[in-house]
Amino acid sequence: MDSLFASIYHTLNIAVFLRRDEQCFALQAQMPEWLMFFLGTSIAPQTCDLTDVFPYLTCFMDDAEQHWQAKRSAPLTSGVWVETNELGQELALEATALWADGQAILLLQDLGEKYRQEVSRLQQVRDGLLTQEKLENEVQKRTLKLKQREEEIAIKLVSLTSYRDEETGAHVRRIGLYAAAMAKALGWPVCQIDDIRMAAPMHDLGKIGIPDKILLKKGKLTEVEFSIMKRHTEIGAKMLQDSNIPALDMAAEIALCHHEKWDGSGYPRELHGEEIPLAARITTIVDIYDALVHERVYKKAMCEKEAVELMSSMAGAHLDPQLFRVFMELLPVMRRIRTEVHEIDDLIVSY
Amino acid sequence: MIQKKICLLGAFSVGKTSLIRRYVDSLFTDKYLTTVGVKIDKKTLQVDGQDITLMIWDIAGEDDLTNIRTAYLRGMSGYILVVDGTRPHTCDTALSIHRMVRETVGDLPALFALNKADLKTQWQLDANQLKQLQQSGCPLLETSAKQDAGVEDMFHQLVRHMGV
Q1: Which one-letter DSSP state was computed for residue A110?
Q2: CATH number of the A2-118 domain
Q3: Which residues in chain A are contacts of B33 at CB distance < 8 A?
Q4: Model pLDDT for residues B57-106, shown as the tens digit of each residue
Q5: Which one of A24, A142, A165, A259 counts the least CB within 10 Å of its CB?
Q6: Where are the domain boundaries for CATH 3.30.450.20 in chain A?
Q7: In angstroms, rounded to a whole number, what is the distance separating the alpha carbons of residues B10 and B94?
Q8: How many Cβ atoms from other residues are within 10 Å of residue A337's Cβ?
Q9: What pLDDT was estimated at residue A49?
Q10: Residue A97 in 3-state DSSP?
């Protein structure tokens, strides 16, 4: 090897090897000091199996071999690996394969300061990422707590109406869970799924503004009484709107529109099809399902089969037919919610 | 003597290097020092009266800055996927590495280490993540390099799983 190049390689702490055969490499020029600990001083110019000395190279030699077979002069690097020297210090090494002067060359380099700088850079970046992760986790935990509190407040609020009519606390909780399951199946973002879980149970909040003699009347309502009863949709919407809280905005929309029907025959605005907000269409379906399969003071519970048959007959007229299909696909999920969320004794009010 | 290559894989700062230091040198430090590249340690153990040398490859944690070179996996007999229970996304990283390894080198003995068990009260993995780990078909072990809990068992289980 040219003495000038040999001197340069030595200065750069690079050991130059010529490949003799698949396993054996012969050191060219002077052995760098760092390498002596690993190879011993007597190796040059004899050959050695470098994968024995540096097991890391076992994962590089296949690629290097292909590189040499193709006689590529561009350098192919192995990636960094770390060895421990005689002083217990870590050395970062990297191998480079290339084809030069008709020969297969392998360079081994102690990356020294370059490696220490890279470690220091990555250490700083990763320390920063860890701090960021911790902060994000903390924010997420606190946001979740706030969300749970909001939900709890919403349920308490809704339970006010439970004390006035036949609905139960468990019913309103189930409505939220059914609606969230539908929203999830429709691919809504997580924050909106959380919103509908909180908003759907508030659909009947406006009943708080309906006089007891109408709300609790056992017999059929007169036309005038029914027109007053229908006002619960607008009363609920007024109570919930203009808060700038997404879940309450959605709740206002649901409260106003959950008695609208797909064919436009609903109230209060006689909206048609997709004019009815999606959250309200979802709530209508799950509210009817839960009401049908549970007992009320004025009616017995239907079995699920009967309930679903009845609802099928309503799809396209009362209910959004496409959403009803989604509901049907989710029936096992709905069933699980129905059977696992039971009545809460202190919220059951019967008249 | 039988020699087997095993790799420790996972996101950065999950404790791969600490698990190896604990197993090989019985040492632990709380200070986080990032690994760059690969470090190989050797540990000889006896299984059924037979000496086995484990070549333990400590591979730099995966993140946006570092990807695991598939070449590292050549000749590997088994691997350990390390998850930091206090950092939920490290579970997703481990599962994604597991998929990558299976696609690259096929079905090899593997296990998941839920590390930092000394901080179990601060673990944040959700039920779905735990379910995914349990359904991975690999053993799931709790470990703590700090308290020397489950570390030796983890390596020995993998060795047994490798059919040595």
Answers
A1: E
A2: 3.30.450.20
A3: 123
A4: 999 887 766 778 999 999 999 999 999 999 999 999 999 999 999 999 99
A5: A142
A6: 2-118
A7: 5
A8: 19
A9: 87
A10: strand
Write out residues 73-102 of B within 8 Å (CB-CB) of A: 73-75, 87, 89
Cα separation, B73 vs A57, in Å, equals: 12
Count of domains for chain B: 1
Q: Do A82 and B38 touch (CB under 8 A)?
A: yes
pLDDT number for residue B115: 97
* Bridging pattern class, strands B38-47 and B76-84: unpaired
pLDDT tier for residue A349 given thresholds of 50, 70 and 90: very low
Chain B positions touching A113 (Cβ under 8 A) are none
Confidence label for A151 from pLDDT (cuts 50, 70 and 90): confident
C-beta contacts of A331-338 below 8 A and 24+ residues apart: A331/A304, A333/A181, A334/A178, A334/A181, A334/A286, A334/A289, A335/A304, A337/A174, A337/A177, A337/A178, A337/A181, A338/A174, A338/A290, A338/A293
| Average pLDDT estimate for A201-212 | 90
Distance from CA of A219 to the nearest CA of B (A): 48
pLDDT in tens, A224-273: 999 999 999 999 999 999 888 889 999 999 999 999 999 999 999 999 99
**What's the mean pLDDT when you consider all of chain A?**
88
Of the partner residues A58, A119, A133, the one whose CB lies closest to the CB of residue B75:
A58
Contacts of A40 (CB under 8 A, 6+ apart): none
CATH value at residue B143: 3.40.50.300
| Chain B residues near residue A118 by CB distance under 8 angstroms | 36
**Prior bond of A268 cis (ω within 30°):** yes
Q: Which residue of A has its CA nearest to B72?
A: A59
pLDDT range class, residue A42, cuts 50, 70, 90: low
Q: What is the least distance, in Å, from the CA of B11 to any CA of chain A?
A: 11
B37·A81 Cβ contact <8 A: yes
Residues from A in contact with B at Cβ < 8 Å: 55-56, 58-60, 62-63, 79-82, 90, 92, 115, 118-119, 122-123, 125-127, 129-130, 133, 137
Question: Residue B128 belongs to what domain range?
Answer: 2-161
Enumerate residues 6+ apart whose C-beta is below 8 A from A83: A38, A54, A90, A91, A93
Confidence of residue A347 (pLDDT cuts 50, 70, 90): very low
